[in-house]
Amino acid sequence: MNTTPLPMLPAQALPLAELMADEARSIIKRYFRTRPAVDAKADHSPVTIADREVEALMRKHIEQTFPEHGIRGEEFGERNPEADWCWHLDPIDGTKSFLSGSLCFGTQIALSYRGTPLLGVIDQPITAERWLAGSPEPARLGDQAIQTSSCSDLTQAVLYTSDPACFDPEQVPRFTKLREAVALTRYSHDCYAAGLLAMGQIDLLVEANIFPYDIAAQIPVIEGAGGIVTDWQGNPPSLEGQGHIVAAANVDLHAKALALLQAKL
After folding, report:
1. Of 16, 104, 111, 259, which has the fewest CB atoms closer than 10 Å, so is most exposed?
2. Superfamily per CATH, domain 13-145
3. CATH architecture, range 154-262
């Protein structure tokens, strides 16, 4: 992650991100609960015509507005990968939920500078909920500023993860220690859980083997609401390759969760 002073967001970045989220909503709503055709990607995860249509439209907007910027999208790969500014696109995060008619999915849009995400949008198209953070502005849900919870006691904490099947065998007992220490654990919310964390409804989010487009938008939103996001070693999460993240409502809770995930087995 970058340690040099970070620049301000380009003037048109936030309006463009909101425009793309608006248009993604329109497309996704057309396909929601229609059982669209499904293809399997190389990693066997599903992809729909809605995923591809949304990302194609977003990429077109970016290429027209910021032709010098990089793009890394879930469906169509990389463009200008060496650019300082890079957009990270996840047209439907939680495609399995989307396909089954569940509301636990969303569109994610992020803009990073040299590996540090500065702008994040998480949009739930059906409920019209939108979490947004653009440095240095704080995170908000719609027009309302949001704040993570003050919970610092693991025994009172609510923990989410998208899918325990994503954990490596060595990670399973570590996550189990954390799961057994908290008050409540829930699954299968993908990016929606990050929004819940940012608005103080849950306290911890732990993920494993996720890609940069899965987390890039969530980092500014969670941190902009007062939370903290690191990898399982306590380092800033990388936007290169697959990674593992621990997001917490505050530093104290994060330290306690990290200690269990790093404990000797």
Report:
1. 259
2. Fructose-1,6-Bisphosphatase, subunit A, domain 1 (3.30.540.10)
3. 3-Layer(aba) Sandwich (3.40)
Residue 237 DSSP code: P
Tokens of 7: 């620049």
pLDDT, residue 1, reads 46
State the DSSP string of 91-149: EEETHHHHHTT-S--EEEEEEEETTEEEEEEEEETTTTEEEEEETTSPPEETTEE----
Query: What's the pLDDT tens digit per position in 34-62?
Result: 988 787 666 656 678 999 999 999 999 99
CATH 3.30.540.10 domain residues, the chain: 13-145
The pTM assigned to this predicted structure is 0.94
70-73 and 38-40 strand pairing = unpaired
Mean pLDDT over each residue of the chain, to the nearest integer: 94
Domain with CATH 3.40.190.80 in the chain: 154-262
Of the candidates 81, 70, 261, which has an alpha carbon nearest to the alpha carbon of residue 178?
A: 261
